[in-house]
Known about the structure:
The protein is of the alpha+beta class. It has helices at residues 3-13, 67-70, 73-81, 102-111, 166-169, 202-217, 223-238, 246-258, 263-276, and strands at 18-22, 26-27, 84-87, 94-99, 116-119, 124-129, 135-139, 142-145, 151-152, 162-163. The protein contains nine helices and ten strands. Helix 6 runs antiparallel to helix 7, helix 6 packs parallel to helix 8 and helix 7 (223-238) packs across helix 9 (263-276). The radius of gyration is 20 Å and the shape is globular.
Amino acid sequence: MSEHLHTARRLAADGLPVLPLRKGKVPFGNCPACAKNACGGRPNMKTPGPCTCPHPCHGWAAATTDPGVLASPAWASAWRRAAAVAYHPGGGGMTVVDLDNAAAVDWARATLPATRTVPTTRGEHWLYQGVMRSVNGVRDGVDIKSTMSYARWLGPGTNSMTALPEAVRALAVKEPATVRPASQTIAVPARAEGGECRHRTPAYLDRGIAMAEQRITEARSAVHTTVYRTFLAVLSVHGRCGCLTDAHIARLFTAAQAKGESPRHCADAWANACASLGL
């Protein structure tokens, strides 16, 4: 039995729904039968939908406490390849305040009631008893993970878990920082009539994508905000003229995921940037 599966079984026995994560801290993709949700599954809803596929193919919604499912042959390959174990906080009656940098930790210590804390690579997870909706970017470097979300298992942490305070619930009603448009006015160019779009020249477009990748890669803090603003900048130049291909977008998402962003965070940031520009 792999170490990750052993950990997952222990957590599931305690009532915490778990799932395997691959490299990049992201869930395994849909199995072939469920690719692009052909099975009718709904990974962004509270349940996976009508799909009965036993594979861990619906992101956070695949999290389970069923020991039979965890040890089933259908999940065996995922556990062998897993890089980490994740859990669904809301399914376990918890909320995780994900503090992504030292400044965010300092803010929490000065603002929020003490509770169980778990060290992370760049900050801390603060765990509270109680559930709420998940919201990214409620403050610079602060995400809330509860229902319809997942968090990496990084150990039991220290201190006692306290009840979810109103101070955390109140964060969810504020506009997330990652969806705030840039303060300056951004002019979105329309495609010129009669003639090839100038952005289709390899030098112009590739340079723009490379600069965007570099901006994300060099971010040392406020990664969520940097990703959103970079997506916004790319779309402000190339969003209306048909230049961007799936390959270009994939390059940006790959750079963001290398900084710890999940595919869902990337998709949300892209959608928010499109909405801000009316695309």
